[in-house]
Design brief:
ten-stranded parallel beta sheet, alpha/beta, nine-stranded parallel beta sheet
Length: 497
């Protein structure tokens, strides 16, 4: 077996080197990320200008008092009949996840039962029964609910979880998993105390229930998924990450949310060698990063990450980190450094020499640095690369208080409160677990995590004898298909696969 493995390794490394030197477009990757950045800036500027114009009128109207300049909120919150027109929310997204329609156009599903008795056979009226359906659904809640999950809540395509009008808490084992799905919106819910679970059968659709390996204990796990929008949520106290997006997930927006009391907040990218994460594109906008946070707001591997108009009020190690050459575009944020003189730097290049990361495109534009915070930019030709993105100036970070004033859950406590216990694992300052093996050791846990998340039959999975070989074979097949379906030229595409 060793000779075959060596041959596969040689081909994989050679082809990976070839691909890294070409203009590669991955499935569902926006071909012009700077155009998306520009559209976000325009939406903020338009919303702020509209608010100022209405407030300057001789007799400001009620809507003028309602507007905040936040383009997402101003799109729907000032409508007094929003509760009868909930699906308008799907038209209010911005950034890379703007196309996430969720359950728009589908029926309303009212959750009436907060229980989670059987993950393999969900009870009608429960959240689990709602999210596994094959049809588009806009899921709302009859009343305030504390939903304690027994296992991962696996969400199907075209779903909106809309907690507006109720106080909805999701906690327990596994929490929310988005795996191989698209068009999902998660809005206005509390998510916390999420712990690992698994080694059981969990239903993912009306026709399929499969064996699940052990989960990491993320608040929201995004795995090989696209067109995802997380808005106005409060996340804290989970065992691994609050939000993790890996395995070529893309077209994601995380907005208006409130993050507190956690160590490794947000991971974007599976590991440094997983080149398909080069197509990951994420917008992080109008969020509050607050009390008890340590690091990873986010921690990026590859991809293009737009961090815009967020309020970073707390961190213990660093705010934004990365490896494997991600593009990080930081615009109009406020970074408040901790008292620790050794933790003033906003940025961290994880286990990478300066001679390597000096070419990475990390940019700060219009950010405000408080209490000695400093951002270390890098990359050659930044002014040229970002010329289109900066043709409209990002909205000043001086407006951060206004843009983030409603971050978190609406209609009640915006965060998860200090009375919530830690999630039995990696909360603030904790180490170990099934994540990266400690504070930014530079690599996520081994490939066993990849296989444990994949659905199998209804029986426990058999032992995989050579997982690395299977991974290399999978990559080799992808590359062969890629090469054979393209006839050369300077711009290569995987979109035809």
């Amino acid at each position: 077996m060793l000779p075959q493995f060596s041959i596969l390794l040689f081909f994989f490394l050679s082809l990976s080197s070839f691909i890294s030197s070409t203009n590669l477009t991955l499935p569902h990757q926006h071909p012009d990320p700077d155009a998306v950045v520009l559209q976000v800036q325009r939406s903020v500027n338009d919303s702020v200008s509209r608010r100022r114009s209405l407030l300057s009128a001789p007799t400001p109207t009620g809507i003028a008092q309602c507007l905040t300049g936040n383009p997402i909120d101003d799109c729907w919150r000032c409508d007094p009949d929003w509760a009868t027109n909930r699906q308008r929310l799907a038209d209010c997204g911005i950034g890379f996840g703007r196309a996430a329609g969720g359950g728009k156009g589908g029926r309303y599903y009212i959750v009436t039962d907060s229980s989670d008795r059987d993950a393999a056979n969900p009870t009608p009226g429960t959240l689990r029964h709602a999210v596994i359906q094959d049809e588009p659904l806009w899921i709302i809640f009859q009343s305030n609910m504390m939903i304690k999950l027994k296992h991962e809540l696996i969400v199907n395509n075209f779903k909106t979880i809309d907690g507006r009008g109720a106080n909805v808490h999701i906690t327990g084992s596994g929490c929310i998993t988005l795996q191989y799905v698209h068009n999902v919106i998660i809005h206005n819910v509390h998510i916390y105390n999420c712990v690992p679970s698994g080694n059981t059968i969990v239903r993912s659709s009306p026709t399929h229930a499969g064996w699940r390996g052990r989960s990491d204990g993320d608040g929201i796990s995004i795995f090989s998924s696209r067109d995802i929008w997380i808005d106005h949520c409060a996340l804290s106290h989970c065992t691994d990450g609050l939000i993790d997006a890996i395995m070529a997930s893309t077209a994601i927006t995380i907005s208006n949310s409130y993050f507190t009391h956690h160590d490794e907040v947000m991971l974007l990218g599976h590991n440094d060698k997983y080149f398909l994460d080069s197509g990951m594109q994420v917008t992080i906008a109008f969020n509050h990063f607050g009390e008890g946070l340590v690091q990873r707001m986010p921690r990026c591997r590859r991809g293009y990450i737009h961090v815009v108009n967020n309020d970073f009020t707390k961190w213990e190690m660093y705010a934004i980190g990365g490896s494997a050459n991600p593009t990080i575009n930081s615009q109009g944020n406020r970074y408040a450094a901790p008292v620790d003189p050794n933790a003033k730097e906003v940025t961290k290049r994880v286990e990478t020499e300066e001679g390597v990361w000096s070419g990475w495109n990390w940019r700060t534009d219009g950010d405000i640095m408080v209490n000695g915070a400093f951002f270390v930019p890098s990359g050659e030709g930044l002014s040229m690369q970002y010329a289109k993105a900066t043709s409209i100036e990002p909205k000043s970070a001086a407006l951060i208080d206004q843009l983030t004033m409603n971050a978190g859950v609406l209609g009640g406590p915006r965060d998860n409160g200090i009375s919530i216990s830690y999630g039995g694992g990696r909360a603030t300052g904790a180490t170990g677990g099934n994540g990266d093996g400690g504070p930014d050791d530079g690599g996520r846990s081994g490939d066993d995590g990849y296989f444990s998340m994949v659905f199998g039959s209804g029986a426990p999975p058999t032992q995989l004898s050579h997982p690395p070989t299977i991974i290399l074979l999978s990559f080799l097949i992808i590359i062969i298909l890629f090469i054979t379906t393209n006839n050369g030229g300077g711009s290569l595409s995987l979109l035809s696969l």
